[in-house]
């Protein structure tokens, strides 16, 4: 399980990005979207193009995330994704290339940005 009492002492804070800005930037080749919610949450609904690496598996799987592209992390509301971003920064990922998506999947879907939900034709 992912440590719940993660403390972050990085040189610079993790940047935050709102869903609309993230959607626009994800259209470029230099951005990737990592969803840290559990597999059942991801299966229920997720931002189109997101890659699922659940927080419960994050310490074992984080190295699957390429370090080159800008990385936007998303969860339900923004708390778990911030933990994941801080973990990546502590494990050698460039802080300036990490972004937490504020409002998470809740805001992404509420803003009707492209998402996948079983039963909606996708």
Automatic annotation (TrEMBL):
Where would you find the membrane-spanning parts of this chain?
none
Q: Which residues form the Rhodanese domain?
A: 27-117
Offer one Pfam family short name for this entry. Answer: Rhodanese
InterPro entries referenced in this protein's UniProt entry, alphabetically? GlpE_sulfurtransferase, Rhodanese-like_dom, Rhodanese-like_dom_sf
Protein name as catalogued: Rhodanese domain-containing protein
The protein's organism comes out as Deinococcus piscis
Question: Species lineage, top-down?
Answer: Bacteria, Thermotogati, Deinococcota, Deinococci, Deinococcales
